[in-house]
Amino acid sequence: MKADLFIHHAAELATPLANSDFKPAQFRIIEDGALAAWNGEIVWVGKTVEAKGTIELQDSATVIDASGNTVTPGLVDCHTHPIFFGTREDEFGMRIAGKTYEEIAQAGGGIRASVRKLRGASKAQLIAAALPRLDRFLAHGTTTIEAKSGYGLTLADEIKSLEVIQELNRLHAVELVPTFLGAHEIPDEYRGDKSGYIDLLIKEMIPAVREHGLAEFCDIFCEAQVFNADDSRKILRAARAAGFKLKIHADQLSRNGGSALAAELGAVSADHLEFSTESDWEQLQRQRVVPVVLPGAVFFLGKENYAPARRMLNLGLPVAVATDFNPGTCMTESMPIMLTLSCLKLKLSPAEALTAATCHAALALARGNLLGTLEVGKKADAVIWDMPNHQHLPYHFGVNLVRTVIKSGRIVWQN
Fold first, then answer.
1. Helix, strand, or coil (residue 44)
2. How far is CA 210 from the centre of its chain?
3. 292 CB-contact burial (10 Å; exposed 0-12 / middle 13-18 / buried 19+)
4. What is the pLDDT of residue 101?
5. pLDDT attached to residue 297
6. For residue 325, which of 80, 126, 200, 320 is within the disulfide window of CB 3.0 to 4.6 Å?
7. Using alpha carbons only, how large is the chain's radius of gyration in Å?
8. Which residues in the chain land under pLDDT 50?
């Protein structure tokens, strides 16, 4: 068996195992583990001793001794907002002083503040701002992210944001999965005319984004004060008819029907879910909608209403976890911190948290057949961690334990 990448003698090779049953994935640990890849794809996984006589290393093969280290799949961050210009640390101070997210937004801050900044930025400026963010994702073990637009809210600025994502995919090793989020907020110029903005989304933005092939998914911020369930249904039906896969920001600030709508419309994922209930989860399960929890946003907003991920898992749902990286409510590119929060606040085990950040997150991007596990036939996306076992990842927090990051069989970052 030919191989141009061989990782051997890992203290642990720790990986979920993909399944087609829409249930939580099983978890496999191989001590003294090894992995071989050819042309960017995994061709063999097992114990190091079993590789002899099986793997035919090419002359130019990359060989990595992972003694004392743990090897996992590359982390998959399935909910991010990485295209913005300028930050909102002033709002961080306001929240510390007692202002709520809703109060800041009503005063013109929040998403609308980021919209005003992005509209004044060029594509070159947005690319220059985003590249260091992608560097930080990669340095912390993330090899794939979902990347949303949503800080433009005009046809030209949404197209601009999505073209930036397209260009970043050419420039950087991190794989970006593009999502159109024109229904992120009602922009300043439409504050008294929400129906006019919905018409703009349906009649101009969605067709144009689709025509240019700039996004795979369409997302919406489904909340009473932004786009309620009826608004969201109208917009998402138009997006689905245009050929987009669907995502929904659901039940984040209140129980507003977002989860039920995700099930009704067959969305790929429903994200946030802090105020969702067991009846919502049962609908998600029946329609195979992946629940994505975002504990970093709850933590960063100073709240305690974490999504009940433990109960969702117990019900049999493949719960995914993501950063929700954005300039207002979760300013971090670190998935390892999300794993720590998942264990401490959501009561997931280290193996369950790692599974949520890899295999289940890949499902939330409709890429379960390509990413998220170290199995034959998957992309050779892997992280070698300077730690003796997978439990150290959420346990040893606040530091970067990444030694080497591999994307499609190629070393793309080393400490």
1. strand
2. 22
3. buried
4. 83
5. 98
6. 80
7. 21
8. none
Q: Is the sign of the CA dihedral 361, 362, 364, 369 positive or negative?
A: negative
* Side-chain half-sphere exposure of 270, counting CA atoms within 13 A: 37
The answer to whether the CB of 353 falls within 8 A of the CB of 343 is: yes
pLDDT score for 202: 98
**Alpha carbon distance 338, 247 (integer Å):** 20
pLDDT (0 to 100) of residue 231: 98
Check: CB of residue 364 under 8 Å from CB of residue 269: yes
Using N-to-C axis directions, what is the helix angle for 229-242 and 258-265, rounded to 10°? 30
What are φ and ψ of residue 291, in 5° steps?
-80, 125
CA atoms of 15 and 28, how far apart (whole Å) = 5
- Which residues lie closer than 8 Å to 124 by C-beta, 6 or more apart? none
- Nearest Cα neighbor of 202 from 175, 183, 187 is 183
pLDDT of residue 106: 82
Q: Convert the pLDDT of each residue in 201-251 to its tens digit.
A: 999 999 999 999 999 999 999 999 899 999 999 999 999 999 999 999 999
Alpha helices in 301-349 (DSSP H): 309-315, 335-344
In whole angstroms, what is the distance from residue 157 CA to residue 112 CA? 13
Cα 161 to Cα 156, 209, 245, 361, distances in angstroms: 9, 11, 19, 23
Phi and psi, residue 258, nearest 5°: -65, -45
> pLDDT digit string (tens) for 128-171?
999 999 999 999 999 999 999 999 999 999 999 999 999 999 99
CA 270 to the chain's CA centroid: 12
Predicted pLDDT at 324: 98
Q: How far, in Å, CA of 122 to CA of 22, rounded?
A: 42
Please give the domain boundaries of the chain with CATH numbers for all domains: 2-74+373-414 (2.30.40.10), 75-363 (3.20.20.140)
Q: What is the pLDDT of residue 377?
A: 98
The angle that helices 258-265 and 278-286 make with each other, rounded to 10 degrees, is 10
Residue the block writes with tokens 């029907």? 257
State the Cα–Cα distance between residues 42 and 340, nearest whole angstrom. 28
Q: How many other β-carbons are positioned within 10 Å of the β-carbon of residue 415?
A: 11
Residue closest to 364 by CA, chosen among 241, 262, 211, 232: 262
Joined tokens for residue 297: 């946003």
* First-to-last C-alpha distance (Å) of the chain: 30
State the pLDDT at residue 404.
98
- Which residues fall within 8 angstroms of residue 137, CB to CB, at 6 or more apart? 77, 145, 174, 325, 333, 335
